[in-house]
Amino acid sequence: MIIVLKQGVTDEQIQHVIDHVEGLGFQAHLSRGTYRTIIGVIGDEERLRSEPLSAIPGVASVIPVLPPFKLVSREAHPEETVVDVSGVPVGGGYLAMVAGPCAVESLDQMRRIAEGVKEAGANILRGGAYKPRTSPYSFQGLGKEGLEILRQVGDEFGMPVVTEVTDPRLVEEVSQYADMLQVGARNMQNFVLLKEVGQVDHPVLLKRGMSATVNDWLMSAEYIASKGNSRIVLCERGVRGFDPAMRNLYDVAAVPAAKLLTHLPVIVDPSHATGRPDLIPPCAMAGLAAGADGVHVEVHDQPESAKSDGAQALRPHEYRELMRRLESLAALLHKQIPRPVERA
Amino acid sequence: MIIVLKQGVTDEQIQHVIDHVEGLGFQAHLSRGTYRTIIGVIGDEERLRSEPLSAIPGVASVIPVLPPFKLVSREAHPEETVVDVSGVPVGGGYLAMVAGPCAVESLDQMRRIAEGVKEAGANILRGGAYKPRTSPYSFQGLGKEGLEILRQVGDEFGMPVVTEVTDPRLVEEVSQYADMLQVGARNMQNFVLLKEVGQVDHPVLLKRGMSATVNDWLMSAEYIASKGNSRIVLCERGVRGFDPAMRNLYDVAAVPAAKLLTHLPVIVDPSHATGRPDLIPPCAMAGLAAGADGVHVEVHDQPESAKSDGAQALRPHEYRELMRRLESLAALLHKQIPRPVERA
Amino acid sequence: MIIVLKQGVTDEQIQHVIDHVEGLGFQAHLSRGTYRTIIGVIGDEERLRSEPLSAIPGVASVIPVLPPFKLVSREAHPEETVVDVSGVPVGGGYLAMVAGPCAVESLDQMRRIAEGVKEAGANILRGGAYKPRTSPYSFQGLGKEGLEILRQVGDEFGMPVVTEVTDPRLVEEVSQYADMLQVGARNMQNFVLLKEVGQVDHPVLLKRGMSATVNDWLMSAEYIASKGNSRIVLCERGVRGFDPAMRNLYDVAAVPAAKLLTHLPVIVDPSHATGRPDLIPPCAMAGLAAGADGVHVEVHDQPESAKSDGAQALRPHEYRELMRRLESLAALLHKQIPRPVERA
Amino acid sequence: MIIVLKQGVTDEQIQHVIDHVEGLGFQAHLSRGTYRTIIGVIGDEERLRSEPLSAIPGVASVIPVLPPFKLVSREAHPEETVVDVSGVPVGGGYLAMVAGPCAVESLDQMRRIAEGVKEAGANILRGGAYKPRTSPYSFQGLGKEGLEILRQVGDEFGMPVVTEVTDPRLVEEVSQYADMLQVGARNMQNFVLLKEVGQVDHPVLLKRGMSATVNDWLMSAEYIASKGNSRIVLCERGVRGFDPAMRNLYDVAAVPAAKLLTHLPVIVDPSHATGRPDLIPPCAMAGLAAGADGVHVEVHDQPESAKSDGAQALRPHEYRELMRRLESLAALLHKQIPRPVERA
């Protein structure tokens, strides 16, 4: 931590800062420059971080030196973590290919789509049962019935399933049905929910919030990890941008930026990032090329009558074409797309 | 709803769109332009909104014409709503002056600060008991003990109290202590929480999310209202910006923009919007001048040792000076700052 | 300047950094922390700034301590500068009320509008002769004829005139007609143009670029000042935002933020910031309340047939009403709105 | 163009809008919905665009249907344009690999770097002679001497050269030395400069502005094309973002989004987009994978002592490694990296 003092700070003020810092049990290291004086603070930055040092008179700014997370950091754990999703490894050279409809609508719908995406090469099936919708008047998901359908279809096709949990009271229920729990972008800083998913043993798919920095995102992962669950897969899905041509601004550079800081796998979701089927394939390819550990795509066989976000879904045959391209790119990058384990 | 068709759309595709729209029970109104063909869709736009029309082949884009909220809209309810916060009216010419520390730390701390802000003219006391902190290692609030202190001090000083609720399971508990429930920026689209606060009878202070459009924000208010609770006060607190000079980008124009669309009161929070004590007074003044129905300010008497966000708090004497300026501006604008009702 | 070294930096690398810094003529001040080592660099930060220190192996980041501008900074010149615009003082308690159409269209149009805005209380007349338009097919301004009309009407009504200059080759020509030169938002980092307006003796109205930080903006003012012209008035006119409800995001907090850093006057332009006549009056009020030294508003008497940006113009009677409100706010704030000097 | 009328619009107002539109020579097509009335306007949208229709009483909003550019649009010209840069084709399956230092510093420096990047596979050499720097006190480039060095080194190594032009008065001079003219991000809406480069016969590298939408960017290309020069290569180089971890926010989705709208080639510049050497390789790969027609990278052999932007430059051996990866990706995508033509 570095404390930069204001121009014209008095000696008394400097001494007050030093006393304050030392009173907290840290060492202060004074350095007078030509124009400004700075104080280096030596000790456990973690603990220091929560002290409101910039409120002290004479202090111009306080500059942290260490990243604020530790369990999820590369510094603490240099090798890449491989997260096991009921037999499908993710990270460390293994790619998650997550596909399925935005919302579970019916058993038939899920079966048709699961068949299509599995044939195409997907290894994890997605489908929303509890949907966080911007409007209270939109379809909110089938709830528990949706979970049952998802589980049943996952079992029929031998695919692990991921679904979003939005309510801390339902983490246990959702965990009974799903192999992996998704925390959505709008809940990335719903710390109550993060703590709850930190207490189950399921892998968690943590989407990046729409205005979250890479640091914010990793801090949310740290929340989960701090409760004991380190089986976390991060997912970049676009941040808020200014161009109405796209739903969000796909921040592909956040993938390598995050992977340099954390040992956790990072996948991309070009469906939500762009909201446009014509941009999903190029953005999926870009994600893999940037080093992502997988691709999450929404697929629907009847987008015209989908109950949620149909307009941004790929059709199964489009997904199949995309998977052919992703497979060849994966081979070039020496990455593997594992097949789900057959369960007897 | 207006459907714009792609250039080169075929007559068959046009007919398919018309059939689809009419099959849903709407009227379609075709209009062939020089370069583009459009279809006006007539009927209940609310219902139409959830149909994925842009997934239909030949459709270039779908343009809604009506705003997506209704209970909270000015169109539905032209007069300004006055929200009663245990005797303090907010809106319709009455200004909420909300002040207090970021977090409740102790009974003494709350008493000292409450005394200072009440004398200065504040009419609602704030203090956090359950704190949503970016880091799992930061102080998370005193919890229930914090609620008890806040209630006791509110009673001692005759001020209604507002505190944040972050967990749907605690809405009932928090409601037993607080006069007003705050939904924080990070939870603005925590729809599970919104539905829960929509089912109590307490007024709700709904902060704007960091990347929420005015429409998104009003949709979140609509969530609460749709569950039966229309006692909502909106609060602008800055959106994510690109300039590191300020914590957030204070969107003062959102105040009149929101007030043109909704009958609900809208207040401003320059403390979170700027994160800088030196910018809080000018931004508070700007908020009132732009038409805000109140100002929310964090005040701490010992910012240097505050357990949360001390660096952005005003000291009581600074708050007093600010209130003098706000009072004279309120008088100029013909607005009143009500005093809390003495309760025997 | 503070150099933060990477974790695991070697002693050799540290020595290399120190040698490098000292080789440039600076002092290096080493400070080893628990987790990180930092080097304080002491000397002329200005000169150091252009050195690519972060490219040196082992360096994690380089943190400047001083703001990068000096001629325009408060530190160099603590009192507020008053810029004289042909007899109208701006800054230091004097408010510029700039009004007029987006573009000069004809002598009659300018006369009608000048009459309206002068009666309403404006003290500087604006009108564009060379228009920077997003489309090459839009009206590009009357050019020299526009300058002649503007000058003539300014003289008839005894108002100084401001107009935009977009071409370094025309700075001299425009200076012959205008009292004040405007550098538009799109040209805020057109350094060639900045250097050119820095060499004339006219006051300059420097609009903030759409994605400029406050520092970037002040650096552009520094460009002008570094060429010898310090008669600069800054103008906040909105930055790029994500909400389609408004044309730009009005950054009212940038006004006090800039004024804390610079001695130059800062005015606001709610017309371009919001693009909506219904938001201009509240945002103009907000600007003054936040400490702005004036308000720039586009006014047109026939917005329906304006050749440029008619949709965002106030009508003269709306401007008159706004001026009544601004005058009463100015009185409250102890600011004066000077009248233009009558010239015989 | 679609005109949406306000709720409660009167019949008189509707008639006034229709009369206005028809008075301009367009057809008006009225459509009364359940809640809103709309008017479709039929005719040359280009001409209509500059009419301030939204200023007419009763008009809620005006929605354009056609994109505002034509010469550069795919609709006007469906096949991809191949831009010839002195023998190096760009676009239509041919990839531009542009590399070189930020600034030309000396003949020796340019020779060493040119040798390195040519061996690595670059086909166009870059180097700045006139540098647009944020600070007036930073190195501003060698000017004409820089142009001479760049030309000489380009000739020695048989590579076409690109350099930035920032001053409309120097377009002719720069054209005498360079094979391709760069218009930088800060000048993307310097329309005076765009018109000037539209009048020479050299290919133009048009960087995207930091807050430009894809439409804005293509409109700037349209400016150049409208003056007669259609030899334009677009370059995505990051937009302003909120995360201090990266210099800009690399908008890789803008590449396919732009290519769907225009026939012009689009390349990427991960050096400026990220400002971090560790992110350049993954982002370069992502750009190609997303469909870019080339990659622009800054390379310096002594970044520690570079006079401009050294911290974001790759070293020659890092560029060589990156080129190996880009070549294998290009092969997978069936794209070619042409070698510069040897000129006798």
What is the radius of gyration of chain A computed over CA atoms, rounded to a whole number of angstroms?
Answer: 23 Å
Shape of chain A: elongated
Portion of residues in beta strands of chain A equals 15-25%
Number of helices of chain A: 11
- Count up the domains of chain A: 2
The CATH architecture of the largest domain in chain A would be Alpha-Beta Barrel
Largest sheet of chain A: 8 strands, parallel
- Counting copies of identical and different chains, the oligomeric state is homotetramer
The CATH C-level name of the largest domain in chain A is Alpha Beta
Identify low-pLDDT runs of chain A: none
* Average of the residue pLDDT scores of chain A: 93
Strand element count of chain A: 14
Q: Indicate the structural class of chain A.
A: alpha/beta
CATH topology grouping of the largest domain in chain A: TIM Barrel
Order of helices and strands of chain A: EHEEHEEEEHEHEHEHEHEHEHHEH
CATH homologous superfamily (4th level) name of the largest domain in chain A: Aldolase class I
Gap from first CA to last CA of chain A? 56 Å
